[in-house]
């Protein structure tokens, strides 16, 4: 197929066109990781390679977690949950922001083959009820700030009376019907000898029910396999040791890919549980020497209007991605002018596919840019004809 396209096809702006099949192709780049291995096994193996390297930094508190510490936390979560009777295929709802417990809990669940349904921590009760009614999760995690509304939604939506609600703090156990997620990080027998089990065909193993944006009504659940997240890594061609950052919680695909980029490739991930403001973002970039980041275009607009933008050192930035809403060409061009060593790009994607196209400051005017790596598409009319 590759040779046929190179002989009869044409290239445009980084994408290749096959006129016979009327298909556009992005760059073909097989994953350096094995999707068949499963996310849990890959992550635990990756973290074991550099146990003393810092993998997570809390910008709010300054707390740091090394690869070895993160690996142990994930293993403890997995063993505790297994002892509690949770098994492959069980659903887990996660309604949490970016705190230090989220990643070990999320990954510990994936090690066991549990199916995750990340929910926006700011959802209204009806949104929680809508999704929980479909997944009938056996396990639910929430923040202290939304505990009450999540607890009400669980009672209304989930039929199993044994469903367990964990709160992401040390006080959850003091609330009736709740437990503290920190219990899952306590030392447990077997943690030193733990090996992640092979869970079967990762292309058929449900990893996540990812919510659509909800712009056309209530959120819709998109089913994604574990192999999808290994083979579809958007940042896999940008491997370096540098820190990464975004404000996205794990409700958003960009939040998931940010975490996986960190864990797969050993890149420090900086997190904050605070909402965006221009000074916060600029301070994080400068203090932690951020190399890769993703933001909404509205955040970039606010930064460009910041009276002290030129005083901040953005020389560490290598790639700045914008997406999640319409990104005008001028915004990328203006941002690019502030990145002496980096590239500004807009990206477009969907919950079902992941990242589809990318556009940088040098793309043709009004172009959506080239297709992302391993993406194939066909342009059709309203009747579905190419």
Automatic annotation (TrEMBL):
One of its GO terms (molecular function) is long-chain fatty acid-CoA ligase activity. It holds the Pfam family AMP-binding. Its main location: other. It is found in: Peroxisome. Keywords: Membrane, Peroxisome, Transmembrane, Transmembrane helix. One of its GO terms (biological process) is fatty-acyl-CoA biosynthetic process. Residues 47-385 form the AMP-dependent synthetase/ligase domain. The chain crosses the membrane at residues 244-265. GO terms for cellular component: peroxisome. This is Putative acyl-coa synthetase. It comes from Anopheles braziliensis.
